[in-house]
Amino acid sequence: MGVSMPIFLLPWGLALLAYGLFLAWYVNWRGPLSKGEVQSALADLIATGVELEGRNDLATLQAFLEADDGREFFMLNLVRIAPGDIPDPVSGQPRPARQVMEGYTRMFLPALFARGGHPALVARKIGGYFDAWGVEADPGWSIMGYMRYRSRRDLAALVVDPRFAGAHEFKFAAMPQTYSFPTKPQMMTVAGPKVWVPLSLALTAALAHLVLLHAQLNSILVG
Fold first, then answer.
1. Positive or negative, the Cα torsion across 122, 128, 132, 134?
2. pLDDT recorded at residue 223
3. Residues 134, 202: one domain?
4. How many domains does the chain have?
5. What digits encode the pLDDT tens for the residues 87-131?
6. Burial letters for 39-67: b for 16+ Cβ neighbours within 10 Å, e otherwise?
7. What is the C-alpha separation between 122 and 222, in angstroms, rounded?
8. pLDDT at 213 (0 to 100)
9. Do residue 42 and residue 6 come from a single domain?
10. Which pLDDT value is given to residue 8?
11. Same domain, 166 and 221
């Protein structure tokens, strides 16, 4: 029928190219942190003075970086947002705490995304503890966040990123209580980008293939 096959391969070639770019961004190809990288990251952190404020445990971070397996991990964050209005760290004017918090997230989330990370799950608390023993009373957690990090190297880079020097003040002002710890999922039933990105690209390529095939057949029939 005189069908030109290369034109139908174009959508699949573009899909493969897009998937390759996605993997280049989303997967850590550099392996685990070296000892030198760990020491450099810790030195940079100490230089920022952040750990001196009592909000970061340097020994815990060091142990986590030294045990790097080069793979992704997910940080669980429990957060209590201050109720009502609080003073803006810059202007001093009263503002809702959630709006003040945006002064941090507007900087952090793009930086996390640039390093292959993203929120995997964010949820608002709608009830008190159901099961609780051997722990302190519920301080009134507001939200939980489950953040995907491409690697521990990316975490180390984000912790010492100088762009966050001022942004942290918004977080500290809006969040009177929080704690976080890294996790390695044992089971996940929610599809992440590793699943839906290739499926979406394949679906797009298949639809484009059909459109091109339809256009080709129409041109033959009309001709």
1. positive
2. 61
3. no
4. 2
5. 999 899 999 999 999 999 999 999 999 999 999 999 999 999 999
6. eebbeebeebebbeeeeeeeeebeebbee
7. 54
8. 86
9. no
10. 75
11. no
CA 194 to chain centroid, in Å, comes to: 14
Which residue ranges of the chain lie beneath pLDDT 70?
1-6, 49-55, 223
Same domain, 46 and 150: yes
User: Cα(159)–Cα(50) distance, rounded to whole angstroms?
Assistant: 9
Compute CA distances 95 → 70, 82, 107, 169, whole Å.
Answer: 41, 11, 19, 14
Same domain as 98, residue 157: yes
User: How far is the C-alpha of 192 from the C-alpha of 116, rounded, in Å?
Assistant: 13
179 and 223 assigned to the same domain: no
Task: Please give the torsion angle defined by the CA atoms of residues 42, 47, 48 and 53, in that order, rounded to the nearest 10 degrees.
Answer: 80
> How is residue 44 written in tokens?
């940079």
Distance CA(101)–CA(89), nearest Å, equals 10
